[in-house]
Amino acid sequence: MNKEISTSVSAVKREDVMKIINAFRDQPGALIPLLQAVQREYGYVPKEAVDLIADELGMFPVDIYGVLTFYAQFYLEPRGRHTIRVCEGTACYIMGGKDILDRLKTDLGVEESKTTADGRFYLETVACLGCCGMAPAMMIDEDFYGNCTVGQLDEILKKYE
Amino acid sequence: MSEKRKILICMGTSGIAAGATGVARLFEQELGKRNLADGFQIIRTGDRGLFRDVLVDVIEPDGQRTTYEYVKAEDVVPIVEEHLIEGNPYAKRLAGKSYHDFFKSQMRIVLKNCGEIDPEDIEAYVMHDGYSALRKAVQDDSAQIVKTVTDSGLRGRGGAGFLTGMKWKFCREAAGDQKYIVCNADEGDPGAFMDRSVLEGDPHAVIEGMAIAGFAVGASRGVVYCRAEYPLAVKRLQKAIDQSREKGFLGKSVCGSPFEFDISIMQGAGAFVCGEETALLASIEGKRGTPRIKPPFPAQQGLWGKPTVINNVETFANVPHIINHGAEWFASIGTEKSKGTKVFALAGKVKNTGLVEVPMGTTIRELVFGPGGGMLHKKLGLKGVQLGGPSGGCIPAAMADTPIDYESLQSTGAIMGSGGVIIMDEKTCMVDVARYFTGFTVSESCGQCTPCRVGLKRMHEVLTRVVEGEGVPADLEFLGNMGNTICSTSLCGLGQTAPNPVLTTLRYFRDEFDAHVHRRECPAHVCTTLMHYEVIEDMCIKCGACAKVCPAGAVTWERGKTARIDPAKCTRCNACNTACKYMAIR
């Protein structure tokens, strides 16, 4: 099924996706790790990859989208160069995490789960980074920022181009 | 080898976030420069459970220990020169009284090794009695292991509190050629991070507990389902699994016995509901993580339809201690029906935030004013405590003497849950907190059954209206009725408990709801739409904290004078109110 769509994956890309598919093909229930591997490769899960996976594993694309949209950490669109994750866990919320989020939204002119117009930042919230003692907390890419204040944000954002 | 002096550096997620990696490297450099490297062993441990930025311990061969807190890069040279060389502790960063008070009243069983050993070194674990319980277990009768765990009274630490030994017994007696042990490390409750700390700080304890469970019920495969937000935990656990396989604690012949057991890790993809056991199993099978009706219970039909034991990280980490010290020893700790210790994640408006392990039955007050060190701000008293995360409830300060055990908490309307304890002071709005949790469960509901999917959404809309000052008296009655309906008609544990934060706040903090609805006022000065942004003269201590943070230049203040907010310039950003510790801005 969907032969004509899956061939639209460019030669290189198709090869890459096939490599990932083959690594998981024989493991029962490995759809989620497989999709995670695809996302590690592209930063999101491209439509072409979904079609190819469906084709190769004998599934319907809708079943794969069912899984992709169920879990918060799958992205169906490319994200900005840097991902900001503002913690919205209980401790952060009580310690003023919402102020941080509101300020970021205003300063960057972007809503949650969206990328800024210049493609620099993708803004999202997470429920608990597990560092409640350093609330309010946020992460930009792999860097962690604890005890955040609204006043520090400009300085922090400057580090990411 | 034991003659070496030891330097312990806490390097869990929070330690690393505070710069521990750089501090550890600097110690190596500075010792190397002075040709002292041979005399020291630098040990990178997991987090100890108390947030003090970078924690460094110096341990002498005779066991004498000096602890430094908030260590920064520039403190390394003075510690090396003044302490390590000259023998005088470096006073500036010595851990203070509150650090020692934090640990004094704790009883550390599960957290025993966290912050004490190198989690990436299996030898360190073995030296601390590691894998001795597994060795002992595989020589024993497997039915006896189940009996020991049952007799100990250990109950599931993930929330529901089911007797662990009974779960094992059901699985052991279930027919099946293949059985599974699953470790639930999908620690989704916001505000709970004990599982992360155990996996980062003592991963072998979890592996050992799972292997013992495998032997007891006759399972040869184990899966750890870990939350995707915990990359360091996954890395350390994987390393630990590889090492124990190498040493023969996992594999075809565990500890040289005929028992075969191996473990793999599955990383979650961000879904709170996957903490529910049947949803978790669906997720391991590669499906959407939607719960199913029980029975059949996983012990009969679990992963791939086979008998499966699912326990939480903390539960498994207790098992080796029970096997080593016996059921009686474990049962002697705690209360009549809740045995052993429980790890709590203390956070919110309290001085010491972190992981606290205390015997079951400790009261909320003991927790807050013992290890917690009291309230964060002197002038803002304890208003309430939220226990058990989005499935739990808010208990008022007046009930702070409630002992924390499964039954006592249940009678208040809260639950033990995974052990998240959020301390709230007078500047926390309970209506807003209730709305916060409902917002969380709305977005995490799997959408399968109507009460949870639609009912919670309606509750959230009403709560939003209330915090924005648009509520009507009938709303409060609606919240109570809807909440009870959702509790009694939802399919899984998520829906059945999701209204708890609202129902308990309605019960214990009704006056705050009334203030929002009848007087359009937020007594805690939190709900921003109800704020006027004016300074209350009687409350203002003239400190100027509000003026310093105002980004719009709307606050004028002179030393010794009450601050003033210019409504024309104010952008209602709330920065002044956040900065004010005296409830002086309304």
Describe the structure.
The complex is a heterodimer of chains A (161) and B (586). Chain A has helices at 3-6, 11-24, 31-42, 47-57, 61-70, 90-94, 97-108, 153-158; strands at residues 82-87, 114-115, 121-126, 138-140, 143-145. By secondary structure, chain A is of the alpha+beta class. Chain A has two domains: 3-70; 82-158, Glutaredoxin. In chain A, helix 2 crosses helix 4 (47-57). Chain A is elongated and about 50 Å long. Chain B is of the alpha/beta class and 586 residues long. Chain B has five domains: 5-95, 3-Layer(aba) Sandwich (Glutaredoxin); 122-331, 3-Layer(aba) Sandwich (Rossmann fold); 341-425, Ubiquitin-like (UB roll) (Roll); 430-518, de novo design (two linked rop proteins) (Up-down Bundle), CATH 1.20.1440.230; 531-586, Alpha-Beta Plaits, CATH 3.30.70.20. In chain B, strand 9 (341-348) and strand 10 (354-359) form a beta hairpin. In chain B, helix 10 packs across helix 13. Chain B is globular and about 75 Å long.
The description of the largest β-sheet of chain B is: 5 strands, mixed
Helix content of chain B: 25-40%
DSSP strand count of chain B: 15
Q: Please write the CATH class name of the largest domain in chain B.
A: Alpha Beta
Classified in CATH, the superfamily of the largest domain in chain B is: NADH-ubiquinone oxidoreductase 51kDa subunit
Structural class computed from helices and strand pairing of chain A: alpha+beta
* CATH-assigned homologous superfamily of the largest domain in chain A: Glutaredoxin
Q: Count helical runs of chain B.
A: 24
How many domain modules of chain B? 5
Rg of chain A over CA atoms, rounded to whole Å, is 19 Å
* The CATH C-level class name of the largest domain in chain A: Alpha Beta
Helix tally of chain A equals 8
What is the CA-based Rg of chain B, rounded? 26 Å
Estimate what percentage of residues of chain A fall within beta strands.
Answer: 5-15%
User: What gap, in angstroms, lies between the N and C termini of chain A?
Assistant: 43 Å
**End-to-end distance of chain B:** 63 Å
Main sheet strand line-up of chain B: 10-9-13-11-12
